[in-house]
Amino acid sequence: MKKVVLVTGANSGIGLALCERLLSHDTEGLLLCLACRNVQRAQAARAALLASHPAAQVDLLWEDGLLVFPLLRHFQKEFATHLSLRLYNRLDYLYLNAGIMPNPEFDAKAFFRGLFSSKVITMFATGDGILTQKDGVTPDGLQQVFATNLFGHFLLIRELEPVLCQEGRTSQLVWTSSSNANRSAFSLEDIQHRRGTQPYSSSKYATDLLSLSLNQHYNKQGLYSSVVSPGFVMTNLTFGILPSFPAFLWTLLMPVFWLIRVFTNTFTLTPYNGSEALLWLFRQKPESLDPYAKYHSLTSGLGNNYTQPHKMDITFETSESLYIKLLQLESDTRKKLAETQENG
């Protein structure tokens, strides 16, 4: 029986690179599901994957539900329909990769100060000190970054429990986190980061916390969770940091980035390199992985890719507190949905 793999945010960047590498690793042994918001880009991604892997089985699903809760239920039903039509009733790997960093503001003065400081590599690798974001609000009244990067994925896991947790086999969750996941950006009193200016960093730190708690609650049911950092990768998310920055200037900066990579292995630069740890986890037995570790995609100065675990700056107590708050928010959201449906 084929392994069923679902990748959110699969139409570009790291998600698409991962799909290409998964099919190169095992074309005929996978049923690959691309979960995307943009229909046209999803179709283009599927066509590109099938062009290079004609024997592959690639399905498309729509993940609008990561932003709007009612649509998530439709997404879950659509996924279940796909499985039942193909006589599959399983999900072996769920890559929780979709993410946004909306409306970033760039502090030019801090950037140029950082260029001549000892923190220059950290600044480039994480955006620390030079980036703030203006968050939006979803139709459900949730903070947009929180809803997309964390809560929508949490709801998806909850909805897909029947196919993720099955007796006699294991399934794996793999979260795309970030080296920008900082404890200082996150607060249990404000898990949606309504009052801060670093919603992306907060959501990624919350991702690290949630993964730990999910292992506590689901390992006995055969479901395991891991976290990955792709490193500094040139994707649409990166280009969006400086929306007015001409594309050719990014090209001119690439030699600088290659030079920096001689001194730090976190500059993976390409989506292919950034997906290294995601693919590495596909090859591991989930029971052997450390729930406190974040698995980093790394690239040497000579261009060699490898994966290395680093202990996360998290505590079990904080992760459990977040998990309880997310369960309560899920309950409140379901009640609001039911009331809206009753009122017509």
UniProtKB/TrEMBL annotation:
The chain crosses the membrane at residues 237-260. The keyword Oxidoreductase applies. Its EC number is 1.1.1.210, 1.1.1.270, 1.1.1.62. Pathway: Steroid biosynthesis; zymosterol biosynthesis; zymosterol from lanosterol: step 5/6; Steroid biosynthesis; estrogen biosynthesis. It is an enzyme of class 1 (oxidoreductase). It catalyses: 4alpha-methyl-5alpha-cholest-8-en-3-one + NADPH + H(+) = 4alpha-methyl-5alpha-cholest-8-en-3beta-ol + NADP(+); zymosterone + NADPH + H(+) = zymosterol + NADP(+); 4alpha-methyl-5alpha-cholest-7-en-3beta-ol + NADP(+) = 4alpha-methyl-5alpha-cholest-7-en-3-one + NADPH + H(+); 3-dehydro-4alpha-methylzymosterol + NADPH + H(+) = 4alpha-methylzymosterol + NADP(+). It is found in: Endoplasmic reticulum membrane. InterPro entries: 3KSR/17beta-HSD, NAD(P)-bd_dom_sf, SDR_fam. One of its GO terms (biological process) is estrogen biosynthetic process. It comes from the Eukaryota. GO terms for cellular component: endoplasmic reticulum membrane. Keywords: Endoplasmic reticulum, Glycoprotein, Lipid biosynthesis, Lipid metabolism, Membrane, NAD, NADP, Oxidoreductase, Steroid biosynthesis, Transmembrane, Transmembrane helix. GO terms for molecular function: 3-beta-hydroxysteroid 3-dehydrogenase (NADP+) activity; 5-alpha-androstane-3-beta,17-beta-diol dehydrogenase (NADP+) activity; estradiol 17-beta-dehydrogenase [NAD(P)+] activity. The keyword Hydrolase does not apply. It is a single-pass membrane protein. Belongs to the short-chain dehydrogenases/reductases (SDR) family. ERG27 subfamily. This is 3-keto-steroid reductase/17-beta-hydroxysteroid dehydrogenase 7. It comes from Xiphophorus couchianus (Monterrey platyfish).
